[in-house]
Structures are given as structure tokens and as C-alpha cells.
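Appendix B, record 7
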Amino acid sequence: QVQLAESGGGSVQAGESLRLSCVAAIYGNINCLGWFRQIPGKEREGVAMIRTGGGGEFYADSAKGRFTIAHDVTKRTLYLQMNRLKPEDTAMYYCAAGSCVSPVLAPSNYNNWGRGTQVTVSS
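C-alpha cells (predicted):
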């Protein structure tokens, strides 16, 4: 139903930027795409989401003002532009697809996941 493949992670210094990409081959009843992150030993948390048919974006408080989510329909690619990165942004980042069930940043409401891309921010 859905194929997701992330890329763009890496190691950067605090204050620098990264852009994550996720090629999203979407079929069926999928109308929300999101970025999530997870640190070993902690629960996965939502970072940002976007409705594929327009209608808005939503960000976690930790991402507001620094991260921007975007979806290029023609390229079938989801992006996460991350600016002014902080060491606490270090995590494995995953893209996910779902059918826009509220709350829209709850990982349990997404049933299609990529394998993740690691982001490491050093101080």
C-alpha cells in the first residue's frame, strides 16, 4: 500500500541545518504524512505532519519555528527542513503515512513507516 524511504540524515554541529527526504509511494486511503523521531530507550515522538491534499501542517512545540515540513506531489517526496539544530534533536528520524486520525502526531495513528535516517547534532 505504501512504500517509504528516508534519506538525508547525518552528523552536524549545533546551529547547522539538515534536510531530510522521504520518497513516499502512496496508494489507497493515505492522506497524512509525518516525521517522527526516536532516541534509544524512549518512545517515538511526532515532529511534524502535513495533509497530502492541502489543509495544513502541524508541528510539535520542539519543532515550531525551526523545522518545516513539505510535500512535493510530483516527486512523491516528503521533506523536513531542519534549521538551528540542537543536540537534543539527535535521534533516528522516521517518515510515516496514515489516514489523518486525531491526534495527528500520535505514532499509533500511522501504520506505514520507513526504516529511518539518523541525525546527530553535536555541541
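Remarks on this record: The longest strand covers residues 18-26. The chain has no helices and eleven strands.
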